[in-house]
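In the previous chapter we treated chains in isolation. Here, by contrast, the input contains two separate entities that must be folded as one system, with a combined length of 1060 residues.
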Amino acid sequence: MLQHSSTTHAKLFLSALCCLPLVNALSTSAFAQDSSVSIGAGYSSEDSYRFGQYSSITGEGAYGIGSFLFQGTKQAGYGGTWQLRGDRIGLETTGLEASYRRWDEFSFSLNYEQLPHYRFNDGYTPFIGSGTMVQTLPPGWTGSSSTSGFSALGSSLNQVNVDTRRDRVTSALQWHITESWQLQGEFRHETKQGSDTLAAIFGSTGGNPRGSVLVRPVDYQIDEFDVSVTYAAAGSQFNLGYNTLRFSNDNASLRFDNPFNNSQWAAGANFSDGAVGQIGLEPDNVSQQYSLSGTHSFGSGTRLSGSLVSTRLEQDDSFLPYSSVFPAPIPLPRSDLGGRVDSLLANLRFATRVSDRGNLNLHYYFRERDNRTPQAIYLRIPGDATPQGGLLNSSARVNRIYDLEQEKLSADFRYRLSGSTRLNLGLEFEQTDRSMLDVATTEEERTYARLSFKPTVTSSAWIKLARAERDSSTYDATAPFVAGHNPDYVATLMGNELFENDPLLRRYHLTARNRDELSASFSLFPWDQASVSFLAILAMDDYPEARIGLQESDKSSYSLDFSFDPAQAWQASVFYTYDNYQNRQAGYARLGGGNPTPFFPESLRLPGNDWWVSSEDRVHSIGSMLQWSAIPERLDLSLEASYSDANTMTQPLSRGQRFLPLPDVSTEIVSAEFSANYRLSADRELSLGWYFERFQAIDWSLDSGGIDALSNILLPGNLSPNYSAHFISLSLHANF
Amino acid sequence: MTNRSLARCGLFGLGAFFVGALALLFLGLNTSEAQSRDSTRQQAAAAARGVESEDSTCLTCHNNPQVTAIYGTPHGLSALSGAASSAGTCANCHGDSASHGQSLQSPGIVFSNEGRFPASDKAVQNQTCLNCHQSRETVHWSGSAHQAADLACADCHTIHASHATALNELSDASVCLRCHLEQRAQMNLRSHHPVAEGLMTCNDCHNPHGSDAMALLSRISVNETCTSCHAEKRGPFLWEHQPVTEDCTYCHTPHGSTQDRLLSVRQPFLCQTCHSEAFHPSSLYSGTGLPPAGAQQNLLGSSCTNCHSLVHGSNHPSGSRLTR
């Protein structure tokens, strides 16, 4: 949708050239000071959405790029400064800003930004109207129970692009009403338009869904207004604020033709019946927030600060019907959700100097999420292929409204043992209460100690140890099921049927966890022009109660940095980072047709159905930079290069379940950037740039088959990105 | 890159060279006039405002562009507006430095170790800045993570530069990433926010001067920070996905990930850490689900989100399984 054409590039380039007389005129005018204009052009060698995912340089061809900065100061009396700024003009990442500021009186700014995001353009779909709210199948389409039976698929495919662009306008005002009082206001209007992928599931047979991954429209709008009043005097600050954010979605739903026929579906639900499915898209919402914060200093080293923030989030979009195919005998309980979530956040901090060498910080934190959305029984229709069921089955669902209440108390003590040796000790306690979940309460204690010191005159170091222990209240595996189903239906079930999940599962954010962290840093400055630093971070999480679910999660990260400035004309640096992330999780395959062996009681479990998966990410990152003032005051050269090699390894294991190894997923990104800036005069500079990027990815989820690789789901069929791209540019920079 | 592309690159480079040369001729190079303007600009501006006379003692020795660039910044103006003391720009921040001027002893306050005098205690340095910079942004400095790490304002901010690095939105990530090395590596991964591309800054999510929230977030929570841009995901939905309502980082790593869409772990295994229902959520997924051995819908394409794509919540009355 947003792809450049060569014609567009040429027009932009010519437009940039047409700006040259303007540059010349401005450079000799008297109204601007310390201002600059850059105009230039670049050429990309590659057609690749991934290469231009954020730069918008997605196609081979020429691009005109310009930037400007005009600024000035009123020189009579007291100062007022103004600025006009434009960046990356000619690309879809343009940024424009106008600002005016009078010191200690007021400031105003108006800002415009574009943020594109190109995902892929090598996908295909048979649907007509891709990227819109109504997507239909082409004439001659033949329905089938599986994708392999879509005989007209090959002749019906159309290429699809998936990309979005944000356009953001922000205006901000700061007004110093008096020396102590200040008013701040900010308004943001943002649109996000383009496309994304969305699963369109129509029905299922025996638990196997039938659907298509479609390209959906994205047409969002965000409007945010923020205003606050601040009082600031010696020793005290207070702030009273109001914020409102409104999200609007121009598309309430997406309607799509069902491409499948299936003999198990009710009459009227098949492609041959002309059945149309419907998916709900994100509803509009609006939030309003009031905040009060302040801080007061009681003398040297003692300070009390706090904040209180109250937010209300509401949503009342009209509901779609249960089904777009069959009428629902039992109607919706409401016409809209009437959704409302109130949240409250409170903070209180106390900081004091307990001695010439010691400081103590105390912090209390309270957060509440109070979901006041009305609950009701909804007789859901799992897919549009099925008529509505009755009240006494698993399709009669109650919407779960999740509440949260969290309290945190922490103490942090810092003590200067000697001139450069400092000790930091901390203790934190956190309690979280949740509703409608298998765990009602979790409690966590965290302790840490950090020592920083100077081993020698030319070095510095610090080491930090942290330990956190989280406990959870009694596990009630039936709670989510009971909370989410019609109570009359729940009353008909046996105790061992009230599980959504395996009762031995412990979800990682709700269960007991032991976390140990060690981090250390050492920096050496062998002489003034060089530095070497090393950083290591190790973290280990254990989930001792999780027989099913995440059991271990480890992280290690090592970084080595070296910078060298041998002379004023030279600057060099290089870094290497190795990151390793490991997870180990366990599962239990509860399979076996329509009536599998129950999870409970435990004696009925089949040991051969246990399985484990270990996954590991290994990432090597290397970066280097070299800057050389080849001809002082005349020619500056710069070379930057980076390399990132990421591998994801997944190892399944089971005693009784059939398994095969999964291939590694890898991504290798190499980039290099060279620039030469030649100063033609005190006010003119010519820049030559070259950027190279090579992206090589192997990903079995994308590269294993095409759009009909799955028998039940039509995929877009996009592949892992692989490219080598060059971008060269030439620009002229003028100061005046 | 094909030979054809290389040839186009070469042709373009040649063309760009001629265009550049043409542009230079067109613009003209009035070098002497430009140099003259450049050398006197800062001082003329300062003199016009009357600053130089107050700072004249300092400028006797420190009259070089690295120092006088401050006259083109708000700090250079602050001494003129009446808000600051009448002692002139230098003394406003560097304190009483009479002994420095008379006998070359250390100035009242020294902000970096680069000169011949050792830097002042960082609390003293920072208090100098906080004397004026009392605003919403700095209200939580006391007790913040960066204060605890013994950072000085001057460690990130270059006061005497007309385009201070940490005040320039295009480059302030580099200031943060000098210390946050793990995040620097993450931002080079395949899935990342456009920070390295200059379209976002660390300040879009964090307030380095301190905040009420964890990780110095500028909004009150992780979710408020994320949904200020991704507002479509905040609901409230009829069918909520509980972890989504609590903390986006349960599933996403915001600084960069080896997986698509900033997911912390690959699907379906990420989903299976919380979902072990009978049938497909509890299955072991392995190479048996990849061609040629098989084709599993929870492995290929978008994995679980091939069907459950409304994973952040659904408002469809039939959408309790987040599929519609």
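Residues 1-32 of chain A have pLDDT under 50 and may be disordered. Chain A touches chain B through 197 residues (CB under 8 Å). Compare these points with the single-chain example from earlier in the chapter.
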